[in-house]
Every structure is written in C-alpha cells, then in structure tokens.
Amino acid sequence: MSRPFAGQTAVITGAASGIGLALSACAIEHGMNVVMVDLDQAALDESSRSINACNNVLTCLADVSVEESLAAVREAALDRFGDIQMLFNNAGVLLAKPAWEYTAEDWAWVLGVNLGGVTNGIRVFLPHMQRHGKSAWVVNTASVAGFLSPSGLAAYNASKQAVVAVSETLHHELQESGSGIGVSVLCPAWVPTRIDQSERIRPDRFMPIRAEMVADALDGAVMDHAMSIRSAVSKGKLSPVDIARITFSAIEQKQFYIFPHPRILPALEERFESVRQACHQAAS
User: Fold this and answer.
1) Environment class of residue 188 by beta-carbon count within 10 Å: exposed (0-12), middle (13-18) or buried (19+)?
2) pLDDT band at 223 (very low <50, low <70, confident <90, very high)
C-alpha cells in the first residue's frame, strides 16, 4: 500500500462505528495518528481496541453539535500528536418519518449533528490547519441525499444538501485564497451501518418536549418509513471498508466529489435533466 500520509494526524468524527471506524482503520494502515471522536463512549472504547494500534490512537468523547466539545478535542489532539493535517467531518444521524411528523427537536437534532458537526468542525480545526501551513485536507461526509431527496428523510436530505453546499463553498474559497488545504465531499448511497439506529445516542436535550410527540413515533406512517430505511441500509452493496478505501484513494487524487456508488448516476442525471428542462421552459 502507498503511504503518502504516514506520520500525519487525522481527526475523525463518528469514529466508533460504520464509515467513521473504517476511516480510522484505513488511516492507521496509512501510518497516520488517529483521533477517534464519538458520542458513544462504550462503542468508542471497543472500536479503538479493535483497530489494535500501538500508541497512535487517541479517543475523545465529544458532541459534534457543540462547538466547545470539538474545541476540547482539538486541544487534546494537539497535546498528543501536534499539528493536524486531515479532518473527517463524518458524524451523522438519520431519522425516518414523513416531513409533517418531524418535531422541532427532531429538526434541531438532525441538523445539529449532520450540518452543525461539519460547520463546527470547520470553525474549530481549519484555522489551525491554515496556521501550520502544511498540506492538509478536509473531508465532509454528505450523501447521495445531498443531490436526491428520498421520501421519509426530509431532515436528513436537508442536512446533507446543506453539507454539499458548505463543502462546495469552502472548496472555492480555499482555491481562491491559494491555500494548500484541499476539500472533498463524500456522497455514498446506502452503506450497511447502524445509522438507522441513530436514536440510541440521541441526547436528552433533543428529545420531544410534549408527551404526544413521543407517541407519534408509534404511528403507522412513521413505522413504515423506519422499516423501509432499515431495509435499504442493510442491503447496501459497499461496506464501510470499501467506502474508506475509496475515500483515501480520492484524497490522493485530490478529488472533490466522491461518489462511491456509480449506480446512482441515472438518478442524478434524471434530476439534472428536470432542472435543464425547467430552465429551457423559463427561457422560452
């Protein structure tokens, strides 16, 4: 294996399972120091042991939706390893229900983690990367839902489309500034992870306030959406390990958009064709 990143330090959020854990293991294979960040302490401890690295893994319990929590991670990482060259804003949650069933707390939670985790990560880590002046890279995990809008995932879709927009903007800004910091936005389709079980780590402050809102989670439409998403996640054709290897290869090639699932191309083309037709109709 090529090891162009050996000796560098990567911060990876959502690192206790799924794509985040696979990214952590792949970074170790590349000879990197790894800062594994997650909100699930038990899973974080178990996952870090499974990587079986010597002394180049640091685990940090943190809530990516809270900027101060990530700032503490940055300080711990600097104390342990020094400069940080790679940031994976990967933490994400998913909640499946019809758009009209989402509570204010549902929206705050999904957007707080999926979008806030990215924007907080950028605010906390990018200035440090700019100051140290070394080659560096930021990977923001979005989804094909950043371009498409599957039913039952209004909050998730909105958050991932926002992540794509933030990533594109950051990419252009860093290029315009002549920075040596690169950006990628990772847009996988379904991958067999535990993202469909995200509510197991939902913080209390994002729980519905009114009792009837809790009862809503049991209605038929919500359950149907949840079961449909769970089935789709479990049938993902690429594993988290596949996604991690594709991602590191894309970074080596300085690739901005990372689409690990080429089979979604027809759906993307259909969307863009609809936009093209609408533009033509407006011009006629």
Assistant:
1) buried
2) low
Please give the span between the terminal C-alpha atoms of the chain, in angstroms, as a whole number. Answer: 55
What residue numbers bound the domain in which 118 lies? Answer: 9-283
Strand partners, 89: 140
pLDDT value of position 55: 80
Indicate the number of domains in the chain: 1
Look at residue 60 and give its three-state secondary structure.
strand
Q: What is the CATH number of the domain that holds 114?
A: 3.40.50.720
Alpha helices in the chain (DSSP H): 18-29, 41-51, 67-81, 104-114, 116-132, 154-177, 211-216, 220-234, 240-252, 265-283
Would residue 165 count as lying in a domain? yes
Kindly report whether the global pTM for this prediction surpasses the value 0.90.
Answer: yes
The string of pLDDT tens digits covering residues 143-165 is 999 999 999 999 999 999 999 99
